[in-house]
Amino acid sequence: MHHVENGLSVNDVSVTYKNGHTAIKNASFVLPTSSITALVGVNGSGKSTLFKSIMGFVSLSNGTVEIFDMPIKQALKSNLVAYVPQSEDIDWDFPILVEDVVMMGRYGHMNMLRMAKKIDHDEVSKALDRVGMQSYRHRQIGELSGGQKKRVFLARALAQKGQLILLDEPFTGVDVQTEDQIMLLLKELKEEGKSILVATHNLGSVPEFCDRTVLVNRTVLASGMTRDIFTQENLERAFGGMLRHFVLGGSDLHEDDDARKVTVLT
Ligand SMILES: Nc1ncnc2c1ncn2[C@@H]1O[C@H](COP(=O)(O)OP(=O)(O)OP(=O)(O)O)[C@@H](O)[C@H]1O
What we know:
By secondary structure, the protein is of the alpha/beta class. Helix content is 30%, strand content 23%. The protein has 2 domains: 1-80 and 162-239, P-loop containing nucleotide triphosphate hydrolases (Rossmann fold, 3-Layer(aba) Sandwich), CATH 3.40.50.300; 92-160, no CATH class. The strands form 2 sheets. It has a 6-stranded mixed β-sheet with strand order 6-7-8-3-9-10, sandwiched between helices.
């Protein structure tokens, strides 16, 4: 079989919104298989726009996106991409049960009538188990905490069995325990060979669990192995004057009691 090394290849992508604002200009980076990549940048730097470009939700004014060497449409059709959106992009008042949200991950595997088969129910159950949400399966999605909601959408991605997994801010508003649980799960998925892209503000956790980093600010400033990219100089370029100090657990830069958190003064 033809071996594809990159789960995702973003080539010279630019996105200009209808109002004329160019959110991303000439961005390029790749995501190898079996890797976790952090997508890091300040608010408004274009992280969500990049995700939307990869999902085909916005049209590119320049460049191409390839997913396992396929064009976006074909990759989406082949169920290769699982997307965990930002919580703000989800309508939490929509009356739907937890198990039905996770079942949505199976739609791409069903025929047009969307009749769930045994395998679909099994995958939903397995996914709920993996994120520790089995006992909540009959709850309305709106009746969950922020961290629980995140886990349900992660379960949806698991049930979908995508090879490229995109997570937009999965750690916002979750406690440390849930954060650790999500990271552990992502590491397992990496071991299974998946390509994972995680947008995050939590710089402190990046060196610990993301082998690669893409730094963005309206374009890709730097990308590669985290140990090469996570330099004070690069981070200052990404965060500008807003980065007064950052904290890496156990490093010389340690300036804070809570080694896991980064202080970004605005
Ligand atoms: N639909 C849209 N139309 C016009 N401009 C937009 C649209 N969506 C986003 N933008 C602008 O594009 C820029 C990038 O936004 P984007 O949401 O990609 O940033 P982000 O890095 O995800 O930010 P955050 O960390 O705050 O979520 C911002 O200046 C934003 O105002």
